[in-house]
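Morning. Coffee machine broken again, so started the prediction first thing and wrote up yesterday's gels while waiting. Chain of 347 residues, entered below exactly as on the submission form.
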Amino acid sequence: MQPEAVELIVLAAAALAFAVAFSPRAASRRELLGKGSVGIVGAAAIAAVPTFDLALFVVLALGVVHSVVEGKRPLALRLRGPVVAVTLLALGAVFARVQGPDVLERLAAVGIVAGLAAAVGVLPYLHPIDPEEQLTSSPVVWLAFVGPVLAAVIVERSQSFLPVDAAGAFGALLIGLGLVNVVWGGAAAWLTESEAAAWRYSFVADWGLVLCGLGLIVADGQRAAILVLFSIVLCRLPLCLVSLEAPREKAVTRRPVNLVVAAALAGSAPFAGFAARLLLLRAATQLFWPLAVVLAAGMLLWLPGSLRLGRSLGLPKGRQAVGVALVLAVNVAVGLYPLPLLLAAHL
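Came back before lunch.
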């Protein structure tokens, strides 16, 4: 397994442990443990198989398993995401391996990037969401639980067979797609009426930064992507779980804890998201400084949506208050000293 994938699997296991430990309902804890364990095993299988083609089979199998979990959306609609993703990724691999004109190399890059977007569930392949759907059958699971490992494996292994001349197009497509998701996700998290949809769009905005980091060829861009993935798994996801189980009157509350949570979600100092944003802006400046200006402007869109999501937690009590404090403390520690996390990923 590649080090980044192993690290992300460990982080996903930690997020699952958090969900089980701090969920207030025993029935919810049992369900999360059972279905979350299946997700961990599936993510590990994606990273463990030796070839890109076998990884696609595992992605499809895991997508089918996730789709048959109880949910209000029709089964065909839930299956559409993984089927489209595997089809696009397979086409990209075929175009990369066949001999032909140069346009095939660019089509290979398009197929891999489009397949990655469909597999994770970001624009232009957003998975449909039902606000009343259980978290275990929600697209948020793919965005925050399986998606990080899947993205690391797809990007790493596709680089082994993509032609050298296609590398530039691959990076440019990732950056362009990332910018679209940063702007769209940040604005939609603020403007949408549904709170569940607001959380989903906030994940999409974070994924926009991940795609930009993966598309930048310098080391700081890759480091930024790892830190944002960490923030998705061990900041946004746990706080989303707490919010979804908070009392319904939470939206009108404005307490200091809500502002601190909003700061963590927005990537403010001293949290891990701030270090990731600094690295990403530095990487963009090294390559093309106007890109850093666009990224900085897109990051400002996080503020209104993060304030909204911070209020959605209300006033955590009991075990949930302990969980929120633990999440914030871990993110402050990584924000102040991210080197161990980056060294574990060999970046």
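The chain has a mean pLDDT of 84. Going to sketch it on the whiteboard this afternoon.
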